[in-house]
Design goal:
two-stranded antiparallel ribbon; mainly alpha; 6 helices; globular
Length: 161
Amino acid sequence: MMDVYGAVRSRRAVRGFTDRYVPREVLERVLSAAAWSPSGSNLQPWRAYVVTGAPLARIKRRAGERLAAGDPWDERQYEMYPPTLRSPYRERRSTFGAQRYGALGVAREDWQARYRAAAGNWDCYGAPAALFCYIDRDFGPPQWSDVGMYLQTVMLLLRAE
């Protein structure tokens, strides 16, 4: 098994997965270990659900049908970025976008192609398993931070596997 340093150094964002089966024991081992992630007053404010097989196929199909029908995406309940992203963050985000869409052969002005690329989220980029993580709406930034630490732990453990 990979050590934590190797997992951190080799971690990357993946936008295309194989359909290779992930053994249930691996998922259970990862989630059991991730439960040790830090959280303020040990609230563990997250609720995680792993979906695979036929239920995941149904979710992907429904999402695909909704996209094909032109249904609008759900309105965001929380802002992802500050309304005015200042330097150096604005440049980092712009560079990332240029690299990502450039690798896909998508021109900056081609909003339809960008939409199709982003729609890969709803197919889980082809992954055979999906983890859905929820938090109660009345929690605030400290608990969101807890969830972030939990998800980072999950991702590093998955990378180690």
